[in-house]
Amino acid sequence: MTDTNVPTVALLERLGAAMADMSPQLRKAAAFVLDHPDEVGFASVRELADAAEVKPNTMVRMARAVGFEGFEDFRRPFRDELRNDTFTDRASWLQDIAASGKLGSVYADIAGTTLENVEKMFADIAAEELKQAADSIVAADRTFIIGVGANYALAQQFAYLVGIALDNVAALPRQGNVPVDSVVRAGKGDVVIAITFAPYRAEVVEATAVARSQGAHVIAITDSHGSPIAAGAAHVFLTPSEGPQFFPSTLAAAALLETLASFIVADAPRDVVRAIDRFHKRRYDFGIYWRDPE
């Protein structure tokens, strides 16, 4: 099997060199790939075959003709290149796709990648470890959750949801502060949940290091065991953030945090249920929730 860790430039050169020995249909498929390499990473086999005016199986046979087991192996370097692009590169790419009238392919790729990210997150994270993290939050004196940038909303949402049941959960940074301003008071008995994905935010990394040095129980939500917030964390939950967007996807992380919030309520004392009931009743009483006119 050909190594899939190959630059796309080298792969395209190999494909061009092999065309002379290909059948007419395989040459047609190869020519399309050589002319439209930017489409290989996101379009489906059927979409590429339709565009090249060949059968889907022809695309598979073309991939095998240059040493790959199948089309997915052939396509992997193109997808990896898309994922390694800068955010600016991806934004430009999305605009180019829109100009070509092929946003439907992007829609399908985002949908597929989102589902893959969420499925992989749930497949790789054991329910028992998530329960242990929930237990530590229920037992904690205080819980701080740190999220900045795109992750700021995740931190606020988690603190809001869990705050209905527990009164010792805070999202950081607070308005006008940086995360480390509040984390300097965290120590043994406290939990600090940190969220960041590549490129990692320096203020989150620094606040996590301070919390860990002071004995806080750190839960890292990130995209790699090599992430700077993973080292020394009590729990490391990897949530895939890849996609064709010009920013890291946070949907898998959102699903993890919603699940963690559910585990917290499930493991908390029975009076938490009464607290949740009181919370919603007050909102109805104060007119915060809409009631249909009688």
What's the layout of helices and strands?
Layout: H1 8-18, H2 24-35, H3 37-40, H4 45-52, H5 56-65, H6 71-84, H7 87-99, H8 103-124, H9 127-139, E1 142-146, H10 152-163, E2 169-172, H11 179-183, E3 190-195, H12 202-213, E4 217-222, E5 235-238, H13 251-267, H14 271-285
Parallel strand pairs: 1-2, 1-3, 3-4, 4-5
Structure description:
Helix 4 packs across helix 5. The chain has two domains: 77 residues, Arc Repressor Mutant, subunit A, CATH 1.10.10; 167 residues, Glucose-6-phosphate isomerase like protein, domain 1 (Rossmann fold), CATH 3.40.50.10490. Strands 2-1-3-4-5 form a five-stranded parallel beta sheet, with helices on both faces. It has 294 residues and is α/β, with parallel strands linked by helices. The model has no long low-confidence stretch (mean pLDDT 85).
